[in-house]
Amino acid sequence: MSRLKVLFTLVSSMGLAVAADTTPAGTAPVQTNAVAVFISQRMFLDEALQVVTRRLEARGYRPVLVARDTGLAIGMDQTVVRPGLMLGECRSENFAALIIINGSGIATYWQDTVIHAKCREFAAAGRVIGGIGIATICLARAGVLRGHKATILPDRHAVRELLVGGARYWPNPVVTDRNIVTAADSQHIRRFMDVLVRLLDTRNRSRQDTGRLTSGAGHW
Fold first, then answer.
1. What span, in angstroms and rounded, lies between the C-alpha atoms of 102 and 137?
2. Whole-structure pTM value
């Protein structure tokens, strides 16, 4: 039995928790370059975290590590980090995006009501949301993928999670649909980050253009 199948057997047997449709409203203004990067307290994927944080920093964004608590978090390759913010204290108005890092430890959060609530909060605020590999199941179970195209590794258990969550499975390495970016697995993490950062950059430019038009409205 594969590792992924074991994860589904142990975790998914506890039931699905698919929420109601939460189409991004896009009404809350973004005034920050901070990006919330959620990791599991144990067994997050070290390489994915490194690539995500480095790519964000290289483009002028500030990654903030978020976890269930601020105790030490340990990766699959024994990387040790201390999250800067508890998940319960993570507010969408303080961040431009939420990225959920994969790794075998994320399976314990597939049915976590707190991460589900945060996904819905960020989606309702129109923030950019990213899911990598099986971390995307958190988004599906939160209900934020309903009506969206999304990808995940081509495993029938994983694909079924997306479909049950109302997503339209798209068998591409990286898929973008409105404010949500998903990657099939970590093999495509760099492409995933290129797409996600471009989306953030586009939104920033749009906000700046709107601000200039607003400030100059009295001269027309």
1. 10
2. 0.84
The pLDDT value recorded for residue 203 is: 86
**Cβ pair 19, 143 in contact under 8 A:** yes
Q: Output the pLDDT for position 204.
A: 82
Burial class (CB in 10 A: 0-12, 13-18, 19+), 80: exposed
Query: What is the secondary structure of the chain as a DSSP string?
Result: --HHHHHHHHHGGG-------------SPP---EEEEE--SEEE-HHHHHHHHHHHHHTT-EEEEEESSSS-EEETT--EE--SEEGGG--GGG-SEEEE--SGGGGGGTT-HHHHHHHHHHHHTT-EEEEEGGGHHHHHHHTTTTT-EE---S-HHHHHHHHHTT-EE--SSEEEETTEEEESSGGGHHHHHHHHHHHHHHHHHHHHHHHHHHHTGGG-
Note the residue count of the chain.
220
Q: Does 73 score more than 60 pLDDT? A: yes
CA 188 to chain CA mean position, Å:
15
